[in-house]
């Protein structure tokens, strides 16, 4: 049996991929995107569930926005990084099946999930569950088949050479993800595209790539071809 997809992302070893200035930059952009999507959404988010969030990457941002946060992971081992972080005592950690979340319908105002859709065997069922337990909104990230990521299959050996421990992952056309959410009664809303340059290149080259990245962001290139995409989906109101 394969290990759960959130086991690696919740490990201390995985967190080392975000060490140093380049890692801090990547996480800062991710949090900026999260805040933009939450601020632009329904003003009703008081509770959140972060599915597969043992990595702890979203917890600080959610808590700073005053949102009471619960994290769900496949096993206790999936929270290694979260439980060693500064926010460990400020969140509830629950274990359960990622594809059969142990919560009633509409239990949380906001449901988030990052670094999971691209690695799970049944992304449609995951989306079904995220939508089921969300009262108002869902925010996910996913790599798209656009920009530099269009060559992901061909360049994966280079990515592995740079990052050493990177995993294979699935990329999506945005319409594919949006269709799955529409099927659950959630309308696609704002997207936040994170990086024009591959994340592996940021880790390899550091500051020069960050400078180019910010230039591309200012002139609008990142908003066109950036990867991965953070996107918010809102429950459609019944007429």
UniProtKB/TrEMBL annotation:
Superkingdom to which the source organism belongs: Bacteria
Domain called Methyltransferase type: residue spans: 49-135
Gene3D superfamilies linked to this entry: Vaccinia Virus protein VP39 (3.40.50.150)
GO molecular-function terms, A-Z: S-adenosylmethionine-dependent methyltransferase activity
PANTHER family from the UniProt entry: 2-METHOXY-6-POLYPRENYL-1,4-BENZOQUINOL METHYLASE, MITOCHONDRIAL, METHYLTRANSFERASE
The protein's name: Methyltransferase type 11 domain-containing protein
Species whose genome carries this gene: Sphingobium fuliginis (strain ATCC 27551)
